[in-house]
Structures are given as structure tokens and as C-alpha cells.
Design goal:
Blueprint (H helix, E strand, L loop, with lengths): L2 H8 L15 H23 L7 E9 L22 H13 L3 E11 L3 H16 L3 E10 H7 L4 E11 L11 H6 L3 E7 L7 H4 L5 H26 L3 H10 L2 E3 H6 L5 E2 L2 H13 L10 E3 H7 L11 E8 L2 E2 L9 E2 H13 L3 E10 L1 E3 H17 L2 E10 L1 H6 L4 E4 L4 E3 L3 E7 L1 H7 L23 H26 L3 H7 L4 E3 H7 L4 E2 L2 H11 L9 E5 L5 H6 L3 H20 L2 H4 L3 H8 L6 E4 L8
Parallel strand pairs: 1-2, 1-8, 2-3, 3-4, 4-7, 9-12, 9-20, 10-11, 12-14, 14-15, 14-16, 15-19
Antiparallel strand pairs: 4-6, 5-17, 13-21, 16-18, 17-21
Length: 610
């Protein structure tokens, strides 16, 4: 029996059933939920019965891409998340640690950090805040690359593992072009581009980068590299020229040589470092029952989250993380219209919420979905003050949504702008011919078959395809002009797909101030005329339903669906890391919906420090 037959059979209302119903009726559900809740209660009781020690070293693991927020739909119930803490969790953990007298020192365990320059910069500010509070911060590196080292130099001291090394070989930008390999299997792509700096079409229609792409990527890389050289030389008290010579002449550096060059402070195994810190904090030797160390994830679960509030006033932090889409996909990736709408409704209906901070970490996505989101955000901003905080990237459609903000904050190295749109139309006629796929079509209407992937757009159909993208672009720059109080010609001179760093966006008039999440929260307090002597309670949105909520609401369909999704995602991550297929994601989406036209307002590339 195939799957469809099974589903139909299960849904047959004429099926004979025993009195009392199937397994998921109330009585049977109670039999399932009570043992599960008992197990969960015991699990949580055990977890929280262990109070934090009076003195300890806070261990902060830093690795991977540092997703802005965690997607709980891909975690399994009652098990710790396999992934690291999200970027926002790290920021709030640092914020709590700075004022927590129990935290005597902080140890950054940095291993394989590869994220945007702006996120590294914002973490450096968080580390500096902890240091200013009188707490020593130590970085522990294994075999570190540029991003690991750039993060480590924010600390008071850097320890490299015995046998480890530093790979300080500089920065690079790399793009892949799929035109030729796609052509070999009979796939071609037509594109509409508004305008020439919107280089997202290039991997699918060119075999090499355009001069506009090189102009932008060189400007961005120069800024990131300049920050790298300046920050390391200042923090390590070495000259900029000396550090650049290390990059160009040495690159791969043993721990011993790195110490001789003044790049690090010590060499030790992780066990040796723990021994030293244990003696320092407790005056005792390291044992199996040692309580001198608390992991950041455990610390997070034991403190008032996301931070200790003073008073009843609240600020809602609404996060837009990932690609902008109309509706969420199976794995819940990106931000969709419905999720943002629900988050805004919750923030507006809560009378204790006095202001909203919109936190954006998105390269954009669906242009029309972005416009819908801006409309909702504009409406919310009329009712409560709205401040925007840009994270690693807030570009294209991500930048469009930022236009609702009374004040827009970005880090100096945030990637933003990319005001432009493009559209891609795949043509698989060559592939169909190669595999012998025949096709007959009966139509009513001149353009009924125009959008088929089995032939290219021609004549008026192609002109309409290009014009549609142009209309979206004109609407986009009109929105920017209205929000930023600029003339259309002014906007067009900084738009056309041009990508900006936060510092250059400030000069171009696209943002208002440089700063991080806590700067935006402070500005929101001022705008809402809140009591500035007290820390407001922070409400984080979107609020994801926990496994407990799904159980208590007897929503078994949602619960089991989440379990299936979590298992699928974790298996997929084991087989193919997301970074391996990210660059083809937009094209894959087009192929899966090839009977539709997709106009994209999305940044064409990422800047990641490895």
C-alpha cells in the first residue's frame, strides 16, 4: 500500500472503531502525556536542583556561524540543543556576567568561529564591558584561524593549546559561477537586474565576476581587513606593519613562535589551564567534583532571562533572522510574514511593552514579502516607538524592513544597503531534450505558457518580465526616499544594488547611528520616555512554543510534526552542512516553484571571516 493509500485509509470516516476512539482521543492522550510530563518534571527538577556556586569561571564556547537566534523546532524534546548558543544568547550572557558578582573570570573557548565581521565586533564590545567590570577574560585557542584570533585579542590574555598553531593568512572573497555546469546539463537562466550593482544574477548568467562586483567586494574587504589590522595591533601593542608582515610572510605559526612574536601570552593544555584557574578561584586542586567552572548554557538556565529587570516596564525585541519568505518552509528557516505579524501583535497588545526594537540579521529575500513586512512595521511604529538594530547583515529586503525605524543602528561593519531587485527564470528545454522528455500544451490566453521552464521568455513576455522587476525597484527606492527624507535621485545614486558597510551607510544617509543591540534598547527607552534609572524587562520575539506547551495544549499533530522535522534537520546537517548549499538556495527555490515569477530583494553574497 503506498503512502497516499495509507493516508486515505486512516482518514476514512466509515472505518469501524472501538468505543472510546483512536489513540489520540482525550483518554488515550492523557495516558501518553502524564508519563511524559512526569519524566520532564524529574528532568527539570534534577537540572535546576544544582545551584550555581558562589565563585566560578564562566566558560563561553564560541564556534560556528553564530545564528542570531536558535530555531527550537529543529531540537529534540528534553535533550540539550546540539548547536551552540545563539548570538543573542551570547550577548545577554555577557551582559549578565558583567554585573554578576559570582562570575570571577570568563574563559572564551574559541574553536572554529566563522561569522560576519559585525558579529565579531559586537562580541568584542561585550567582552570589553566584562573587562571594565573588573573581571579577567582569557581566550583559549586550539588551531586558530583569523576569526578565532580576531575574537581572542579582545581578551586580557590568549592561551594556545600545546601543539596548536595560528593560521593568520589574511582574508579572501570567493564566488562560484554555475553558468557553464548548468549549461552542460541543458539548463539556462534568464535574468532581470535592477541595477548593475545587483550582482545576484551573475553566478547564473556569467562565467566570471563583473567590474561592479569587484568594485564592491574590494571596498568591503578593505574595510574588514583594515579593522583586523588596526584592532590586533592596538590590542597586542604591536605595529600594524609588523602584524601585516606576519600575515604575508609567516601565515602558519606554531604556538611557540606566536608567543615569541607577542601574538599570544601562553601555551597550555586545556587541563592545565583549568588547573590554574581552579587554584586561583577556589584555592583547591582540580578534581572530578570541581565546581569552579560553569558553562554558558547552564549559566543561562539559572539566571533571570534575558536579563534582570527593574520595574514593570518592558521593551520588545522582535528579531528577523534569515531569508525573508512569504511562508515558512518545512525546516522553519528564515522569517515569514505570519511570524512577524504574530510577534508585532503580541508586542502591541502587551500594555507593559513601551517600545519595540527590531533586530535584523537578514540578507533579504522575497521582495513582495519584504514590502508586506514594512507595511506592518510602519503600522506598529505609529502605536509604539520602534528602533532598528542591524546585526551582521541587513541588506536588500532586510534593509527595506528597517525603514520603519525611528532610528536605525548598525555596527560599522554591518553589511547593509543592496537596494535593488533581480529576477531569475530557469529554462530547462535543453535538459528535457537530453533526456527525451516530450511535452504538449493546450492554452487559453496569449501568455498562459510564458512562464514555463521548458522554454525561454521571448519578445513582449521578456519585456514584461524585466518591467515587473523595474516596478518593484522603483517602489523600493520610493520607500527609501520617503523614510530617509531623500530625493529619488539621491536614493538611486546609493542604490542600484550597491552594498555598504555600516560606517559608509551612515555617511550615505541610509542609517542614523552606529552601535549594537544594547545601544538600540537604550535609544528605545529614551524614545518611549521610560525610567532611565531602571533596566526594563526584555521580551524576545518571535516566541517559540516549547515542547511543554505543545503537550499541555494536547496538540499532538504539532508535537509529532516538530519531532519529525527535528530528526530530518539533524540528519540533513550530518549529511550536508548548510554552508555547502547556501549559495544555491535561491536558485533551488526557483526551480521548485518554476511556474511562478520570483522577484528577489536579496543580497548576492556574504562576507564571512574564517
Amino acid at each position: 500500500m503506498d503512502t497516499m493509500s495509507v493516508v486515505s485509509f486512516m482518514k476514512n470516516k466509515n472505518m469501524p472503531t472501538k468505543k472510546g476512539g483512536g489513540c489520540f482521543r482525550n483518554g488515550c492522550f492523557t495516558l501518553i502525556i502524564i508519563p511524559v510530563l512526569l519524566f520532564a518534571g524529574l528532568f527539570l527538577a534534577f537540572r535546576f536542583s544544582h545551584a550555581l556556586p558562589d565563585r566560578f569561571v564562566l566558560i563561553m564556547p564560541l564556534s560556528g556561524g553564530l545564528d542570531e537566534i536558535r530555531n527550537e523546532s529543529t531540537s529534540l524534546p528534553f535533550l540539550p540543543s546540539r548547536g551552540p548558543l545563539s548570538f543573542q544568547e551570547l550577548l545577554f550572557v555577557f551582559d549578565n556576567a558583567a554585573s554578576d558578582d559570582r562570575v570571577k573570570e570568563v574563559l572564551l573557548d574559541i574553536n572554529g568561529l566563522h561569522t560576519t565581521p559585525a558579529k565579531i565586533a559586537e562580541l568584542r564590545v561585550a567582552v570589553e564591558k566584562v573587562r571594565k567590570a573588573g573581571k579577567k577574560v582569557t581566550a583559549f585557542l586550539r588551531s586558530a584561524e583569523n576569526s578565532d584570533y580576531l575574537m581572542a585579542v579582545a581578551c586580557d590574555s590568549i592561551i594556545v593549546e600545546r601543539g596548536g598553531y595560528l593560521l593568520l593568512d589574511g582574508l579572501k572573497a570567493e564566488s562560484l559561477f554555475y553558468t557553464t555546469p548548468l549549461g552542460k546539463i541543458g539548463v539556462k537562466v534568464q535574468a532581470a537586474q535592477w541595477k548593475k550593482y545587483k550582482s545576484g544574477i551573475e553566478p547564473f548568467v556569467r562565467t566570471g565576476a563583473s567590474k561592479e562586483y569587484f568594485e564592491q567586494i574590494n571596498a568591503l574587504l578593505d574595510e574588514v581587513y583594515d579593522d583586523y589590522l588596526f584592532y590586533v595591533s592596538r590590542r597586542r601593542n604591536i605595529s600594524r606593519n609588523f602584524f601585516e608582515s606576519v600575515i604575508n610572510n609567516d601565515a602558519l605559526i606554531s604556538a611557540k613562535k606566536a608567543k615569541t612574536l607577542g601574538l599570544i601570552d601562553g601555551i597550555a593544555s586545556y587541563w592545565e589551564l583549568q588547573q590554574t584557574l581552579t587554584r586561583k578561584i577556589t584555592g583547591k586542586e582540580l578534581t572530578s567534583n570541581n565546581d569552579a567552572f560553569v558553562n554558558a548554557a547552564d549559566y543561562r538556565s539559572h539566571v533571570a532571562w534575558p536579563r534582570n529587570a527593574e520595574g514593570n516596564e518592558r521593551i520588545a525585541v522582535v528579531t528577523m533572522s534569515g531569508t525573508i519568505v512569504r511562508s515558512s518552509g518545512e525546516f522553519g528557516e528564515g522569517i515569514d510574514v505570519e511570524t512577524l505579524k504574530n510577534s508585532l501583535y503580541a508586542a502591541l497588545e502587551d500594555k507593559k511593552v513601551k517600545a519595540i526594537v527590531l533586530r535584523i540579521d537578514s540578507p533579504g529575500g522575497d521582495a513582495l514579502a519584504s514590502a508586506d513586512m514594512l507595511q506592518m512595521l510602519d503600522s506598529a511604529a505609529v502605536k509604539k516607538p520602534l528602533v532598528v538594530s542591524m546585526s551582521g547583515v541587513a541588506a536588500s529586503g532586510g534593509y527595506m524592513t528597517a525603514l520603519a525605524g525611528k532610528t536605525i543602528f548598525a555596527q560599522p561593519l554591518t553589511i547593509t544597503g543592496s537596494i535593488g531587485v533581480y529576477a531569475l527564470k530557469p529554462n530547462i528545454s535543453g535538459l528535457a531534450e537530453k533526456i527525451g522528455l516530450g511535452r504538449d500544451v493546450v492554452v487559453r490566453g496569449r501568455y498562459a505558457d510564458a512562464n514555463t521552464p521548458f522554454k525561454p521568455l521571448e519578445g513582449e513576455a521578456y519585456s514584461k518580465f524585466v518591467a515587473a522587476s523595474g516596478e518593484v525597484y522603483d517602489d523600493f527606492i520610493g520607500k527609501v526616499a520617503a523614510s530617509r527624507r531623500m530625493r529619488i535621485t539621491q536614493v538611486d545614486s546609493v542604490a542600484g544594488g550597491r552594498v555598504w558597510s555600516g560606517s559608509r551607510a551612515l555617511k550615505a544617509g541610509l542609517i542614523d547611528r552606529t552601535g549594537g543591540l544594547f545601544d538600540a534598547i537604550h535609544a528605545a527607552q529614551l524614545l518611549a520616555k521610560m525610567d532611565m534609572t531602571k533596566k526594563p524587562k526584555i521580551m524576545l520575539y518571535p516566541m517559540q512554543k516549547s515542547w511543554f506547551e505543545s503537550l499541555l495544549q494536547k496538540n499532538t499533530e504539532s508535537l509529532f510534526e516538530r519531532i519529525v522535522i527535528a530528526v530530518k534537520q539533524q540528519l540533513l546537517d550530518e549529511i550536508i552542512p548548510r554552508s555547502q548549499f547556501h549559495s544555491m538556495a535561491a536558485f533551488y527555490e526557483l526551480l521548485m516553484n518554476s511556474d511562478q515569477q520570483h522577484i528577489l530583494a536579496i543580497m548576492p553574497y556574504e562576507i564571512i571571516i574564517n
